[in-house]
Structures are given as C-alpha cells and as structure tokens.
Amino acid sequence: MSSAPRDQAAILWFSELGIEDVPLVGGKNASLGEMYRALRPQGIRIPNGFAITAAAYHRFIEEAGVTETLCHILKGLDTQDIADLQARGRRARQAILDARLPSDLQTDILEAYGRLAEEGEKGPLDVAVRSSATAEDLPDASFAGQQETYLNVQGAAALLESVKRCFASLYTDRAISYRVDKGFLELKIGLSVCVQRMVRSDLAAAGVMFSIDTETGFENAVLINASYGLGENVVAGSVNPDEFYVFKPTLKEGYRPILRKQLGTKEQKLIYDQGGGRMTRNIPVPVEDRQKFSIGEDDILTLARWAIAIESYYTKKRGMPSPMDMEWGKDGRTGELFILQARPETVHSRRRLDDIETYRLTSDTRWAPLVTGRSVGSRIAHGRIRVIHSVQELPLFQEGEILVADRTDPDWEPSMKKAAAIVTNRGGRTCHAAIISRELGVPAVVGTEQGTAVLQDGMDVTVSCAEGDVGFVYPGLLSFEVERTTLSAVPKPSTSIMMNVGNPDEAFRLSFIPNDGVGLARQEFIITNSIKVHPKALIDYDTIKDSETRAAIDQLTIGYSDKAEFFVERLAEGVAMIAAAFYPKDVIIRMSDFKSNEYANLVGGHPYEPVEENPMIGFRGASRYYDPRYKEAFALECRAMHRVREDMGLSNLKIMIPFCRTVEEGRKVLEVMAENGLERGQNGLEVYVMCEIPSNVILAQDFAQIFDGFSIGSNDLTQLILGVDRDSEVVAHIFDERNPAVMQSIARVIHDVKAAGRKIGICGQAPSDYPEFASFLVDSGIDSISLNPDVVVKTMLQLSKRAGLRAP
Length: 808
Description:
Strand content: 15-25%
Structural class: alpha/beta
Largest sheet: 8 strands, parallel, barrel
Helix content: 25-40%
Number of domains: 5
Number of helices: 30
CATH superfamily of the largest domain: ATP-grasp fold, A domain
Low-confidence stretches: 136-145, 347-351
Strand order of the largest sheet: 23-24-25-26-27-28-29-30
Distance between the termini: 63 Å
C-alpha cells in the first residue's frame, strides 16, 4: 500500500479518521471514523471500512486528463435551463466513466478490500460503496443524497466500477445544481468514497432516525423510521415506513418511553439480487409482514439510546447543540443493530413559535356580510365555499376550502383538518366545530342559522373572526394583514397560564408557546381520531356477531390480536405525546367525558349506550366509571394512564375526573382507579376533579377532602346554573359565563378551595373569550388559568400590563 503523506494518501481507514478530516474524506467518512473511534467503545456498533480519499479523486481526474474536459463542459452553465443542465451533467459523468483509474490506485483499493475481507467470514466480501463529498454534512450545508450509493458490491471488478461511478456522481444534475446554488466552486469540490462492510439488513430491517423532531424542532424526542430490507428505500422515500417517537429525558432514567408507534404500509423491500447482473432488487412484502412492525420495542429503545449518545458526543465535540440525522441497519443473521452513518440535521426546518399573530382586515372594499355568527379564534381566512350536508359528501371536500355545514361531528375531523375556515348553522362557542377549529388554528363562525342556505358551492368568501364576539362571512377575497408580537417581550404574570390541548399531533408545536403546563388534556380527541371504536366493543370482540362491526374493528386494529390492548396502547400514546411535549410541567388529563350519544357513534357503540333525552346531563363522566355498564372500559383508560406514568416515566401527568355529582361518587371512582393501579398519592399521583356542577361549588370543602385540586369547567357550570342547554342555538343568547350568578359561584368556590388548602384553576372557555373574565379570575385569587393556545400570549400581555409588569 502507498506510503504517501497523510494528506496525499489514497486510503485511510475509519480507525485513522476524525471529524476534522472532512477536507480529506468528506463528511460521511469523517463522521464514520469519528464514531468508530469514539463511540464503538460505548457499545454503538459501526461496521468497519475505509475511505478512498479526495486526494485520490483529484489525482485520478488530473492524470486521466478529465479536469480540462470538465471545465469546458461546465463553462457558462445556467442551472435554470434544465435541458442544458441535463446535457452537461450527462457529458461530465461520461467523461469520468470513460477514464481509467490509475494502476497504483486500483492496487491500493483492492489491497484494502482484501484486508477488510480478512476480518469476516470466508467468501466474497459484500460492501456498500458510498459517495462522500468534501463539502457535505456541514452544519450549514448537507450534500446528503446528492451523490450515489451502491450496495451489495462483491468482487474486485464490481468494486472498482462502483468507485468510478461514485466519482462520476459528483456530476449528477442535482449535485451540480445544488453546489451552484450553495455557492461552491465546482472543481474545488472533491469526492471521497466510503467502502464499508454491508450489514445484512436485507434479511431484517433498516431505516433512518433523527435526534430531534424534524417537523417542529422539538428537541426531546428521537424520531425513527423503519422498514424491511436495505435502508435505501426509506432514505429515498420509496416506501411508507413504520414511525416511532421516543422521549429522551425519561429514556435516560431507565424507562421505556415509546411515545408513538405508527404502522407503515411497507409495500416492498430491497434485498440482495441473487444473480441476474444487478446488485439489489425490490420484492413485495407479504401482507402478514406489512401488518406487523418491522422492528420490536427493544430495538426501538436501543436505537434511541444510541441517537442520544451520538448527539451528546457531537454536541460536546462542537461546543454547540448538534441534532443528528442517522442511518441504521439490523443484521438479519445476527440480530445486531448498526449505525451506518450520522450527520448534522440540516435539511428539516426547526420551527419555533417566536411570535404571536394578530389578524386585521385591510381591504378598502368590504360588502355587507353574507352571514354572521359567533366568532371562534381570532384569525382571518379566505377561500372557496364547499357546503357539506352529510358525512357521505366529505370526500368532495378539498384542501383550503371553506367548510360550511349545519353542524359538525367527531367523524368529520379528518376533513376539517383540510379546511381554511369553518361555518355552521348551529352551535355556540363550546360546540364541536368551535372546539376543533381552535385546536386546528382555523377561524370558525358558528350559529349562523342560515349558512347552508345563503352560502353556495364555489363562492369566494372571507371569514373574519378578528372583530370581536361576532364572526363575519364576507363576499370576495378581502385583503388582510397579520401583526406579530415577539414572545421574548412577553412578561410572566403571577398567575400560572396553562393551555388546553386535545390533539397529540399539535403538542410538540404548542409546547413552544410560553406556558406553565397543560390545564386540560382531553381524551375524547384521541379516542375519536386514533381509536374510533367503543372500548366495550373491543373488550367483547369475540362475542360480537354483527359482521360489519367486526370488519370495521379488524380494519382499525390491524396488528393487534388483543383488541383491548389496541385501546390501551393508542390512548397511552396520545396522552404520552402531550405529557412529553410539556415535561416536566404539569399535564392534567381529563378522563373520558363523551356523552352517551357520542359514545354510541363510535364503532360498535350503539348496543352499549342508553338512548337519553338529554345526554348532556345524563350518563357521563364519573357516573360511568364505577357503573357495571362501563367499569371494564374505564379500567382500560386507567391501564393507559398507568402506562404513561409508570412505564414511560411521565410522572408529570395528573388525572382529572369530570362531572362528579357527589362526594360519594368521587370516592367510588377513586376506589376503581386504585383497583387498576392508579392510587392517589402513589408515586406522587394527584387526582383533580372538574368543578362544573353546582354541587361542586356548594360542597367544595367536602370534595377537597378526597381530591388534590379543582379545575373549573365554566361551560357546564354556566349551563347548569342558568338552566341553558349549551347545544341549543334557540337559547344560546342566554348562555354567558359573565352572568353574575356564574361569577359569584366561581368566586365562592375559589375562596373555599383555597381555604381548604387545595389548588384551583379553570379550563373552561370563558377566559379565552373574554379578557375581563381572566382579570376577574386573577382578582379572585385563582391559581391557574388554562387557555386555548391561540389566546395564551394575548392573555399574558393583558394580565401583565394590568399588573404593571415588564418583559424580562
């Protein structure tokens, strides 16, 4: 082998390389060398290999006379002219492929290949041959995917051909365009080649992982994608992989915090080709394997631990936070996991909620509104009307349209996520459409009475909820502006400001809003969107005779032989995502509070639910939990919460019991919870009660003897004090949390609860809608106010200004 100076060496082994060697061997090789030397001793497996250096590449194209050819081909290149770019790229690659590798370089490569082969089993050594550009994987530029990779390369001839093809891939169309756009001088960029032992993941699974959530920039989660076969399918996006989230802080403490497991379709897998002239080929994955996760929980947790270790190492090495993007594989012969490469995470945005938005109409021309109603949220949106009369019409709904309906139901939510705005005939501020629109961050105008009659398909309209209590639907696409307030300028009020959160998918993003935790996390959203089946139907699955119900359950529970476990796992995952997002701050989860008619609408639900004239004050909340008709189902809820706290280590989760009519009823619920592993006080478990019934106010000190805290539900409390059905648009005008009877009751219960030495907050709608109501609560001495995310900063500013506070 050549004895040239190190900076001129053709071959450098991983054991000789470190991150400082990017100019010599590119980011991929330098990172592999760094990990091989520093992290392999910690138990992180890195397949051995060597780098063919950039010096070898430059010598090759110089001695072969390719340099001048490349200069001529690329002179005057305009990357915006796609046809010209393609033609030049093709000529540049062919020039390299036509050239011959120097004889001594060939010798060096084959000698290293032979040495690598001696480390393993007898027979031809299969290696991965990967490109490693000398400007790639820098913290501010990633060349990942710009050049080529060749897998299952066996034998001298195939290796030398693959190396040359890697050299030529420095001039793929995408690579040329990327370098020009990034301002790198073409011929200054060299290419190193990584020759690495293959991991036989073609017999098992492989994928990618990130030590950060790529969508939100949430830093406390590891995201893992996995699929059967070699990992190139996942890297290239050729399959829909399994997806897993793992929570870093409690994983470090020894817990098993897999926050989410999402089954991918995994239609095909990349395997070694046995003859036929190709190195790899895709084959279909059998249906039974597609319906299973490609790796088990132990593998998921091991990979997450490695991701943490790799990120921690590079953070210390660089002296700055270094989220990492990694590729991994599992060897199907030995069952061992390996890290195949790691680089700084640079491609995905790390969005932060650094400001708050205030919407304002600016259009000079504003016609009379077509309809008006109660405004929800404070945003403005415009788009084209789509009137939906029934669930059967929902497939017609398109992204960015304005959803207009008589009212909405939970099974509409997937389509509601596509809406630019929502308009309904019926409902008040606490109806389904209002709640969901807040969680989605879209404006809604509810209770218009005549929305479906006046608004017609295809109309262009503007929905404005930025003008106070009244929401307006104007004809035409009106102009508006958005004013942003920097969050760093928001002072912290003395009263704790928490958030109401229902959608686990939004939890990581919402965690960036200034907050003191979650005052209300609702199970209903998770059950409706992720589970969809009545828990009793899952428990009784084996005895269900209705074929349609069984088919629907089978479709929803693919991969679960234990149908009840499907409910427990999905509910635990949804709650865990929220608890993890705000960890270690308090997250108060309200146990299920569907009404009987809402439970009946879940798959298989009708046989288990009574038909009630007024479900709003019927079989709901605490009354269900100890009743023989639901007690088994409540046990599943308890198992899920126990899993979040005890198995995942998210002890910041507190439990809240809704609609608890009597103290005795509260005791019964606590007994059932204890029977199912949720004993108040054990491992710091606190149990709260909703204060939403007049009896909760009148007997507050008695309830305080058995519960750790109270959360005022102003919606139901107002309904029951004023005798107003809050779902009735006929008497909706009477429903007002600012009524003196309601406010006096709230002031009284705050006083009595604090006198009993317990905590009390509010999670109802009133402080989100009315700034003066939030001020009243502070004056009454409330401990915390839990608000809808869209008004948290606005309320903080208002309360701080009122108290004369300044930004930190």
